[in-house]
Amino acid sequence: MADLNVKINDLRLKNPVMTASGTFGYGLEFADFVPLDQIGGIIVKGTTLKPREGNDYPRMAETPQGMLNCVGLQNKGVDYFIGHIYPEIKDIDTNMIVNVSGDSPESYAETAGRLDVLDGIPAIEVNISCPNVKEGGMAFGVTCAGAASIVKAVRARYHKTLIVKLSPNVTDIAGIARACEDEGADSVSLINTLMGMAIDIEHRRPKLSIRTGGLSGPAVKPVAVRMVNDVARAVKIPVIGLGGISTAEDAIEFLMAGATAVQIGTANFLDPRVTIKVRDGISDWLDRHGCKSVTEIINCLA
Ligand SMILES: Cc1cc2nc3c(=O)[nH]c(=O)nc-3n(C[C@H](O)[C@H](O)[C@H](O)COP(=O)(O)O)c2cc1C
Fold first, then answer.
1. Is 21 annotated for ligand binding?
2. Which domains does the chain have, with CATH numbers?
3. Is 180 an active-site residue?
4. CA-closest candidate to residue 162, choices 6, 5, 7, 9
5. How far is ligand 1, taken at its centre, from the CA of residue 20, in Å?
6. Atom of ligand 1 nearest to the CA of 191
7. Over the stretch 162-171, which tens digit does the pLDDT of each residue have?
8. Which residues form the signal peptide (predicted)?
């Protein structure tokens, strides 16, 4: 059987399939359905310095081949995470990675600093791309200077693997990825959701409480593959690809486009075992094509 191990900086993944933040809780919620230790990594819910209520309901709307959400980073804050959730998840035998958000360079850095000391968290994913919060979030991810300011502040306080999650709601995602690399990011992940809107025509109002939301699911995949390829051609650090993956074939497209690993988000809502199925499908594909290691197909485009 082909070797599925990959590396993101110092982070060793037993296979390249991870779960995306906000779609897999803290992992524990899925433990009855999926052997968590067989997933390459679990990116837990978005975590902020102070607790956040999130946005009003409705927060979700189905769209063709996808969904819109405006959850708005609802969470109980980093101290609650450290005191109550970390003890429950720290011994899960996979890479438990915390997704971090904030409203200023200082708040991102403070949250990252508090996570730096946790032995069971080998990496963080800094979200500079959430479209559903008024302050901070995506605002930092849409300019090179904004992205650089967050990465610089976090890098000063965080000493383990630092992944930066990029926004697709930009014209030059490669430039923003380079700005993150220049400030010391170890990896970039992309894409977060694409800004969208849906309308309830009977009531003549937006379907989501805050008018707009983030589009995810199969509908976004071609946009995501293109952006992963743009970024992989522009930076030397490893790229993590996501956006619309629900099958092994989808994941292989991202690997060939230049991703060292992938994440699966919305598809977990339809099939909680999708990560394991995608891992097995990648393994079968590699065996059928005579590949000894998954690394043979990463960034392999002619
Ligand atoms: C309900 C929901 C909540 C999400 N929450 C977060 C979050 O807290 N932090 C983050 O970086 N991304 C968040 N995302 C974005 C996903 O992690 C992912 O980037 C996006 O959905 C694209 O992948 P997919 O098409 O596989 O879902 C969320 C997505 C959904 C659908």
1. yes
2. 6-297 (3.20.20.70)
3. no
4. 9
5. 6
6. 19
7. 999 999 999 9
8. none
